[in-house]
Amino acid sequence: MSITTTTSSFVNNNSSIDTLQTPLLQQPCKNPDYMQAGAVIVKVGGMTCSSCVSTVENAVNALPFVDSCSVNLVTTKAEVKIHAAAVDLQPGSEPVEEIVDTIESVGFEAEVVGITKFEAKEATETAVLSISGMSCASCVASIERLVGNMDGVKTVAVDLIKGMASVTYIIGKSSADKVSEAIESIGYDARVEHIVKPVASPKGSPGQVPAEPTVLRVCPISPAAGVEFEDARKILNNTPGVVGLFESTSGDSGVVQISYVPSRELGARDILAELGPQWRLAPRNPSTGYHMDPVLKHRILLAIPLAIIVEVLSMSMLGSLLGCWLPVVLLVTAFPVQYYCGWGFHKHAIRGLAHCSLSMDFLVSFATNMAFIYSAVWVFLNLPALISGRMTSHNTDFNDCMFFETTTILITVLLLGKALESRAKASTASALAELSSQRPTDATIVEEEDGSLRTIDVDLLHIGDRVKVLPGGHVPADGTVVMAGLNTACDESLLTGESRPVKKGEGDEVVGGSICVSGGMEFTATRVGSQTALARILQLVESAQASKPAVQRATDKVAAVFVPAILAFCAIVVCVWAVVSAVSPPQRAADMTDAEKALLVFRFALSILMVACPCALGLATPTAVVVATGAAATRLGCLVKDAQVFEVAGNRKRKMAVVLDKTGTLTEGKPGVTKTIGFQDSRAKAMLAAAEANSEHPIATAISAWAAPAGVDSTLTVTGFENIPGVGVKCDVDGHHIRAGGDLSWVVGSETMAKGMMEYVEWMQRERDDGAVVVAAAVDGVVQGCIALKDRLRPESADLVHQLRYALDLSVWMCSGDHEATAKKVAVDLGIENVIGQARPSDKMALIRRLKLNGNTVLMVGDGVNDGPALAAADVGVAVGSGVDVSTDASDVVIHSLRGLAPFIVLSRQTLKTIWRNLFWAFIFNIIMLPLAAGILYPPTGITLPPEVAGVAMACSSLVVVTNSLSIQYWTKSRYGHDEDLSKAIREATGRKAGKE
């Protein structure tokens, strides 16, 4: 096997990384405006050390209008960010002068060298609404178009599967109530579930993502308590940490949702205590499993017997017993089915028509009303003849004159289809329900005073509570173990994909939702409520399921014009048949009367309107996405952030190149020192430890631990620290200049001097040839020694490369910041041919751009932090880390283990294949059935598609799509639900022969 090795020499390129801002359920209770008006840059003179920096920062941060102050000792500049309340940002203005005076008052010189004004942003919030009555993509398009055109609305996203909508709007220009009223105006039932509003960073923490707020649901202890929402708002209005209240419109009346940021100072029990004894924890919402709409159930139960009666009377001898009264009985029996059981179709059709928004409901309503009204008019016009006995079942074929059996069967079948479709759609979200079920309802805490145990609702847990978990119990929150048995282990498989129980000991982290399978333990809660990893995973999966890949956006556009196109097609067919019947009727219709010909054309029109199905088109993509994201999370330990990933990673029409980072990705990310040379001066080792302690890189951590096993000397002062990716670190320690890195010439500051140190040069080369990472350290330009470190390869790394290269036939690259020789040795061990060593972040991005230009889809796999720019630049960025660490980096996917990467690619292919199968079925169904309904086979064969059969076919088409999407779930369960030979399963799924080398 030949190895292609490249030393990086690519052009630098800047990349920005978007930070995920966590939203908050909130209606403002008190509204501090944390929006920044701008920043003041101040030149500070007289600073000599980090103590001076702290003095300046503390003094300026104490000013009431300052959001944050950051001082750079090297540049001697301070950046002071100002609240929006201090709008007067001009040279010489009061806020600016106060900053200067404050710095001078603590003994330093200050000069304003720049002022930056930030553009004011309009405050927005997001309303999350539940919507009932949506049946197809046309409904989604109608709602998104209506709400999207409202004044002040920024974004709108409607999820057909869950029946939810998320609408972001500018506060003051729109509101949740206005959005709800607009949706209801076109025939849908809308209800505000909660309001989401981003929280600004608290003062003094610039650039940080704020702590995730959680929601506490409370209600009056009884209707006679005499308290309501306004009372709760007044009590909590000035409570620090409580950021919002919202009066729930779902579930029981009187429920108040309190949004707060949990801390050691504020918890749910504190809030309940402050509210007083008149309030209690509200009952939980019912489980997220499938529940049939009671109104729909009632209408189905009424429609079925009435439809059977109409059908039996129309098609059997029993009808003849009624004689001339048969039409009247059919009219009376069919009326409640048409206008009570089918009222949902008519209501949506009427309101949609008023807003020029047509959906499947309009087609159903229009077709059944045409048939019913025609039949009813016929009955009333012929009522005298019926009563007098001149028209009876003996001399008149009532079935040729009335369509009551057609309308009742259609309405009943469509109602049954809607119920079955809802149940099937609920099944697609079973993975999310499975994750939700992992959260226990109760928790057992250890009282601080006497050590007694108390069981409380899990929503009442505080940060800092000591929680006891028995064997077999669910862990109720995230925390740190403080006491555990010798064999304590937790099953985290549903959260991380790790099939084997994970041992836990004192100091280890535990994850809420995992199961303590043995030993029992006690832990201190560190994250509760919406802060827990399980809650954030659920939020991430729901967000991914609601996102739309490009293919869905395209089909939504088709669905938006589907109904008008069907109406136009129906009108054309009616006109064509009318002309043909009058001018040159088919042989089979030659002996028909004009009335019979008109009824034939009428039946064709009804069949067209009933068989046309935009539902299958609208469900084709979202059902597959919902199933795939859930399966990825629960079966593979992969958290997908955007559904677009499946479309990109699953596209087999383009070549795919997989770029792998080494440290922390292919290796465990826990390097250890194996050999050293030099370092006779213990003082030099202490200074090296102090320098490396400022870096979070695993190699720096290992060096710091080796150089100072008892801990870094706190008396050493580190200034001017700089971490240069791909090169090393440099700083000053107690006035001595320290450099540590892999390039000896950079460490000593001279290539000529480095060449003269042959002992070190040869030693470093030998260790690199053996696969070690080598770091040289110098103090004031004098080499103190070299360190060799090795990081063990992950056990699954070799299997991954084999799967990617041979089972999936992908191009595999390794791009590492380590020395070329070290990278090459690891590549040989793993079987990777394409290697780039000594790569800086900009070099990784340049490689990705080059691969893209060569027509590749690039999948970058890294640690999620150091590889942020490369992850953002790739078509698909995959961060390897804890499956419960829902990182806010630039990655598109977070995987717990490399074992999940190849199966994820196959899952993406399977998902995209399923989407295309769904779309093919949706289009081919309409392409075949519409001409058949239009009577294309009638002239040669006499075959027609009766309207009631057309309705059944239309209802079944959606079930076919949903069932096909569910096949993804069964596919992942059968292949990746257990520990098995993944390479074999992947080869089976991709149709490649096993054993290809």
TrEMBL record:
Keyword Flavoprotein assigned: no
HMA domain mapped to chain residues: 38-111, 125-191
Gene3D superfamilies: 3.30.70.100, Calcium-transporting ATPase, cytoplasmic domain N, Calcium-transporting ATPase, cytoplasmic transduction domain A, HAD superfamily/HAD-like
Keyword Magnesium (UniProt): yes
Gene Ontology CC entries for this record: endomembrane system; membrane
Gene Ontology biological-process annotations: copper ion homeostasis
Compartments, record wording: Endomembrane system; Membrane
EC number from the UniProt entry: 7.2.2.8
Ranges that cross the membrane: 300-319, 325-346, 358-381, 558-580, 600-620, 919-938, 950-971
A GO molecular-function annotation: copper ion binding
Record family assignment: Belongs to the cation transport ATPase (P-type) (TC 3.A.3) family. Type IB subfamily.
Enzyme class: translocase
Lineage top rank: taxon: Eukaryota
Membrane topology: Multi-pass membrane protein
Keyword set, alphabetical order: ATP-binding, Copper, Copper transport, Ion transport, Magnesium, Membrane, Metal-binding, Nucleotide-binding, Repeat, Translocase, Transmembrane, Transmembrane helix, Transport
Primary location class: membrane
InterPro entries: ATPase_P-typ_cyto_dom_N, ATPase_P-typ_P_site, ATPase_P-typ_TM_dom_sf, ATPase_P-typ_transduc_dom_A_sf, ATPase_P-type_domA, HAD-like_sf, HAD_sf, Heavy-metal-associated_CS
CDD domains: HMA
Name of the featured protein: P-type Cu(+) transporter
Source lineage: Eukaryota, Sar, Alveolata, Perkinsozoa, Perkinsea
